[in-house]
Design brief:
Phosphoenolpyruvate Carboxykinase, domain 3; 2 domains; 16 strands; 24% helix
Length: 268
């Protein structure tokens, strides 16, 4: 029987344990489970979520690798790397469900000149593509999926790997370091909130909007239920209080990133 290999990570209020059936599959987990967070010995604390990557042998559909969460199979793939998007989404769900002092917003987030720039939006809104382009232009990475906001209204990094499509329907994991970008390691005030809608062939057309509109956008893009967390309004009000807020149309990610750099006045 193949010896199991494992490590654990404490991510905010969630302990994640990852196990694998070979050094090769463990290396995949180690590379993509919050790579900037320190590792702990597996079993040093009771895990909130247990993830396992294993090679099962090729089935009739050509799938050779399987990802399980808390003992239940959740995804399979022909190559171990194909499990990584499922791995990341499983971790996202576990972490967000267990947040205590922080609240999450679906938003791309980068650090520019000591301030966070937030791009609220749902999945498939193009957040990751714009974040990647901003990283290539000198921004520090906070997240391509969640901005975490504390009681003071500061944004905290949620440094999971980016998931990029690059013109493909399948997501591929990319580390910030592969884009020559540093990963943020401290909270920052929110300096800008951009509510952007993709429109093919559009030119960059945005206008300043009231902070109240940005507040509504944050509330619309949080995974938390307002009925269960009424403090969200006050927290997000503090987040938008010092932010310049804009809304409008944008075209391709590279063009949008260049315009954002000009808008913020931050050097590329």
């Amino acid at each position: 029987m193949t010896e199991s290999l494992a490590f654990a990570v404490r991510a905010f209020d969630c302990t994640i344990e990852a196990t694998a059936d070979s050094p090769e599959t463990l290396a995949i987990a180690n590379r993509y489970v919050f790579p900037s967070f320190p590792r702990m010995e597996a079993g040093s604390a009771p895990p909130d979520v247990s993830l396992r990557l294993e090679e099962t042998g090729e089935d009739d559909t050509g799938q050779r690798f399987r990802l399980s969460k808390d003992g239940e199979a959740m995804a399979s793939a022909g190559q171990a790397i194909g499990l990584v998007p499922h791995l990341i989404h499983a971790i996202d769900e576990a972490v967000v469900q267990r947040l205590a002092a922080l609240r999450a917003v679906h938003a791309g987030a980068v650090l520019l000149n000591g301030q966070a720039l937030l791009l609220p939006g749902t999945t498939h809104a193009g957040k990751s593509s714009i974040v990647a382009e901003l990283l290539r232009r000198g921004a520090a990475y906070f997240s391509d999926e969640y901005a975490l906001i504390d009681a003071r209204g500061l944004a905290h990094p949620y440094p999971r790997p980016l998931l990029l499509r690059n013109g493909s329907p399948e997501q591929s994991p990319v580390l910030a370091g592969e884009l020559n970008a540093p990963v943020g390691d401290a909270p920052a005030p929110v300096g800008w909130i951009l509510l952007l809608e993709y429109q093919a062939g559009s030119s960059w057309r945005i206008s300043p909007v009231p902070q109240s509109l940005a507040l509504v956008a944050l509330l619309q893009n949080t995974p938390h239920a307002l009925a269960d967390a009424p403090e969200l309004i006050a927290i997000f009000e503090r987040a938008v209080a010092g932010a310049a807020c804009y809304a409008g149309k944008r075209a391709e990610a590279a063009d949008a990133a260049a315009e954002i750099i000009r808008l913020t006045g931050c050097p590329a």
